Amino acid sequence: MKLAIIPARGGSKRIPRKNIKSFHGKPMIAYSIEAAYESGCFDKVIVSTDDQEIANVALEHGAEVPFIRPENISDDNATTIDVIHHAIEWYEANGTDVSEVCCLYATAPFVTPEDLALGYEKLCEKDDIQFVFSAATFSFPIQRALKLSLDGRVNMFNPEHAMTRSQDLEEAYHDAGQFYWGKKRAFLSKAPIFAPHSRVVLLPRIRVQDIDTPEDWLFAEALFDLQQTRNS
Fold it and tell me: Checking DSSP bridges between strand 44-48 and strand 3-7, what pairing results, if any?
């Protein structure tokens, strides 16, 4: 069984209830649920949550909620891998064999069915590929990043590149925070995702926005508006 798991705990502090907060007319989590179904990749799309209100919203938008997530993996110290590990083991303990898994974040309104399908295609290209995740380029060369001391003094992280032209520096990439396809054994063994056995689905920066703070939320809304305008 190919399984989409959407982690969505109820304890978000910086943006209260962000997983089900209205984003351009529907709960944020609905975008991930819809993209998962439209991709045609999954036998089941489930939401792993400790919160009954989130569970109800997920059910209203077509996802399954086969269990309420235990408290020990629902606090601030729980990791995404813990949540995925629990869901896989729950299904297998209940007689369903899992093959490939996609962890799809609840706050990913820019995820597309096409990106999810491409991720699955890449995962299946070779036996040694364990994970495929969304990524994007940094907008500025990381080799020229600055840091500030406690008294405000400026230093470079890599002073050897102080005079290097930007076009001569190697391009760098970062996790786009939308989805992580993986083979069951990779998730269960808690193998590292950012490693040579992984591949990426490269996204344009206009479709990448982490949503952790109120400022992030406003920026995501503006990006969404911009895309709607471009597509109209």
Answer: parallel
